[in-house]
Amino acid sequence: MNPNDPLADLADIHLPNSISAWPLAPGWWVLIILACAGLVALFKLWSKWHASRLYRRQALAQLNSIEASNNKISSNSQLVATLELLKQTANTAYPDQHFGSLGIAEFKVFLQKSCSEAAFEKVPDNLEATLYSKSVEFDSLMTEHFMASAKTWIAKHVAEHKLEYQAPC
């Protein structure tokens, strides 16, 4: 080595320490807090929505038990129990409007108007006289259609606070 060489006294380049992820910058803390608040708000909305549909789940479970008892009771009794369940569900979905107190023909029109899908289309107009008559028995196809329409209505009806309904003249 040359003693007069000025480059001989130089040391190697020192790299800085690597940047640590901790502690976080204030912007990250704000982002974490906002994300947590958003998750809490989403959970509250979901739980409110889930609780508001509880009556639907209970009604569908009760309808399934009515449907399962089809070999134990007559089809007329099964339809009467289903109609009672539909009226209870309507009174729960529209608590201040008392649609359950309508006659069967008017209630059928209400069910059709309050559902987003077609339901109760093949139900006869003289349903009231037929249901409570001891001499007339519904056939199994009619009972199946009525039960399917009831499931459709319970699952898909529009549950608004105020539903505009006008009874047929």
Task: Outline the fold blueprint.
Layout: H1 26-52, H2 54-68, H3 75-93, H4 104-113, H5 127-131, H6 140-156
Distance between the termini: 115 Å
Query: What is the residue-mean pLDDT, rounded to a whole number?
Result: 84
DSSP strand (E) fraction?
A: under 5%
- Please state the CA-atom Rg, rounded to the nearest Å: 34 Å
Secondary structure: helix percent: 55-70%
Give unreliable regions as ranges.
none
The number of distinct β-strands equals 0
Question: Can you tell me the overall shape?
Answer: rod-shaped
Query: What's the story with the biggest beta sheet?
Result: none
What structural category do the secondary elements indicate? mainly alpha
Count of discrete alpha- or pi-helical segments spanning 4 or more residues: 6
* Run of helices and strands: HHHHHH
What can you see in these coordinates?
It is built from six helices and no strands. The protein is mostly helical and 169 residues long. It has a domain of 103 residues. The termini are far apart.
